[in-house]
Amino acid sequence: MSAIMHQETIIYGEKNAPLHGYVAYDDKVEGKRPAVLVSHAWRGQDDFARMKVEKFAEMGYVGFAVDYYGAGKSVVKNEDAKALMLPLFEDRALLQTRMQQAYDVVKVHPLVDAKRIGGIGFCFGGLAIIELFRSGVDLAGVVSFHAVLGTKIDHVQAKRLPIAAGIKGSILLMHGYEDPLVSQADLQATQQELNDAKIDWQLHIYGQTSHAFTVPTANDKSLGLIYNPKAESRSWQEMKDFFSEIFSR
Predict the structure, then answer these.
(1) What is the pTM of this model?
(2) Which residues contact 16 (CB under 8 A, 6 or more apart)?
């Protein structure tokens, strides 16, 4: 960790439903700079998400870890994560609101160039960052890593909102060809929606790659959660190139 890196927890959202954001930036970078929201996976805002925030700080950006569960909740067991996730998976309006609350905090940060805000997300956090993009807020672009793209889990059917009109930002989706959590129908529907909305979109598919390919601790073949260091490295570099492009427009 760089000694010049500023780290801070920011409490935001509604008074009766506080959200705990984590922000980091390089104190020695002068003037306003781009910002990147980091949307955590289904277990909550954890060290993995905060480490990504710090990587963006090292790149000269303001990094901000979202808290869409509230109160900084983070769990270990899959069943607990699923219980936290499903209400937001179902209620996409609520999910968009939680994500927009983080965006609103970042947009007014004194070091952030409000015209150069992006976001990334992992697994369910990938879906969350896509929903923020779909809501139509002024984002330069977002990147999803092994995002959940479906509209139904078990008996729970998502109540989706239509994609906003006139979105100008770009989107990059990183997907494993062997991901068991995303059907070909869901993948095709996502591409069709983005194309119909005239979005500048890209989809990168990695062969021999399953879900959670960026997570070093992922090693559950029964659930299809398998780390792939090559796909992780490639996707991170492609993300860096993507932000370099869209933030220079």
Answers:
(1) 0.97
(2) none
